[in-house]
From TrEMBL:
EC class of the enzyme, as a word: oxidoreductase
Organism of this sequence: Streptomyces termitum
NCBIfam families, A to Z: PRK06545.2-1 (NF005109), PRK06545.2-3 (NF005111), PRK06545.2-4 (NF005112)
InterPro entries: 6-PGluconate_DH-like_C_sf, ACT-like_dom_sf, ACT_dom, NAD(P)-bd_dom_sf, PDH_C, PDH_N, Preph/Arog_dehydrog, Prephen_DH
Keywords noted in UniProt: Amino-acid biosynthesis, Aromatic amino acid biosynthesis, NAD, Oxidoreductase, Tyrosine biosynthesis
Protein name: Prephenate dehydrogenase
EC number: 1.3.1.12
Pathway named in the protein's UniProt entry: Amino-acid biosynthesis; L-tyrosine biosynthesis; (4-hydroxyphenyl)pyruvate from prephenate (NAD(+) route): step 1/1
Length: 362
């Protein structure tokens, strides 16, 4: 691939453009808002000038509601040898293109499973897709050359290609992406009118659950409007679990011992099923999640503290597999949770104590 046209210079489009430009591909940037394309160009994502002729690959990175129209316009203008989109839903745009009577041999649907709470070109980065799945949904007629162009883009972006059927993809993202967004927002909405004394008790659990609730509602309305059925199906299952759990909790309030036992059983059931589901979430490098040991360190809110911890762990020959930070409300301090292989935990704890760190039981 030597030339590309990115249509839509938001987070995803600009990030892909940055990765391509970093590999020497000549990238042309186009957006309905010229200022956005100029900003992306200023960041080094390419040029906001129009290409003189067809490019190798056109990447359509616009909201799902506009994806098919943008693809159709580019295809009718013979803008490229191959066309792909990065919309978060795949079945709808594909059916729209088919209904328009377009030749889809030069088209492939794709969806990089990566993003941020922030949007726009200023939030973009060439490393946004590193190690993340990038779904490819070829049609029955997609040309091999176009598939290869898509695979080249995925490789340049450092992502992992996953081939799926378009409708199977939409059902999958309803479960692993779209429903979590709504559930996170619903939990966060409980905080809006909460007493200040309750909000001040917020710990890492509520921060984890509500992190993605900070996402742009306008963007999510567009996404959910393009995939409402599968999301509603998943939410119906969640609602059934909620109803059962509410009944079980009410039973725990009963004076009747048998009802309390039934209530405890009902709550335990949903917790255990949650354990089983969580165990299926891929861990590091896409493998089954490992059982890491956690070493918890008290850290001051000062420049360089995190770097010191990692340097001390490195000097001890310990590889930190994962890390989390829990901030202390109202204090210039926090707790850093260092996840390591179980056999390495005692050595890491001893090394950090020797270097003056204060450890907490994790």
């Amino acid at each position: 691939m030597r030339t590309a046209l990115v249509i839509g210079t938001g987070l995803i489009g600009t990030s892909a453009a940055l990765a391509l430009a970093g590999r020497g591909v000549t990238v042309h940037l186009r957006d309905h808002d010229p200022a956005s394309a100029r900003t992306a160009a200023a960041l080094g994502a390419g040029t906001d000038t129009e290409p003189e002729g067809p490019v190798d690959l056109a990447i359509v990175a616009v909201p799902p509601a506009h994806t098919a129209a943008a693809l159709a316009a580019a295809m009718r203008a013979s803008a490229a040898r191959g066309y792909l989109d990065v919309a978060s839903v795949k079945g709808g745009p594909q059916r729209q293109l088919e209904a328009m009577g377009l030749d889809l041999t030069a088209y492939i649907g794709t969806h990089p499973m990566s993003g941020k709470e922030r949007s726009g070109p200023l939030a973009a980065g060439a490393d946004l897709f590193e190690g993340r799945p990038w779904v490819l949904t070829p049609t029955r007629t997609t040309d091999t050359e176009v598939l290869n162009l898509a695979l080249e883009l995925v490789a340049v972006c450092g992502a992992v290609p996953v081939v799926m059927d378009a409708d199977a993809h939409d059902r999958a993202v309803a479960l692993v992406s779209h429903t979590p967004q709504l559930v996170s927002s619903m939990v966060a909405a409980r905080l809006e009118e909460a007493e200040e004394s309750a909000v001040r008790l917020c710990g890492q659990g509520i921060r984890d659950v509500t992190r993605i609730a900070a996402s742009d509602p306008r963007m999510w309305i567009e996404i959910l409007s393009a995939n409402p059925g599968p999301v509603a199906d998943v939410l119906a299952g969640v609602a059934a679990d909620l109803d059962e759990t509410v009944r079980a909790l009410r039973s725990l309030q009963s004076a009747d011992e048998e009802k309390r036992r039934d209530g405890a059983t009902g709550v335990e059931d949903v917790l255990r099923r949650g354990n089983a589901g969580r165990a299926r979430v891929p861990g590091k490098h896409g493998t089954a999640p490992a059982a890491y040991e956690t070493v918890v360190v008290l850290i001051g809110d000062r420049p360089g503290e995190l770097a010191r911890i990692f340097a001390d762990a490195g000097r001890a020959g310990i590889n930190v597999e994962d890390v989390r930070i829990e901030h202390a409300t109202g204090r210039q301090a926090g707790l850093v949770q260092l996840m390591v292989e179980p056999a390495a935990a005692p050595a890491l704890a001893a090394a950090l104590r020797d270097r003056g760190w204060s450890l907490r039981t994790g």
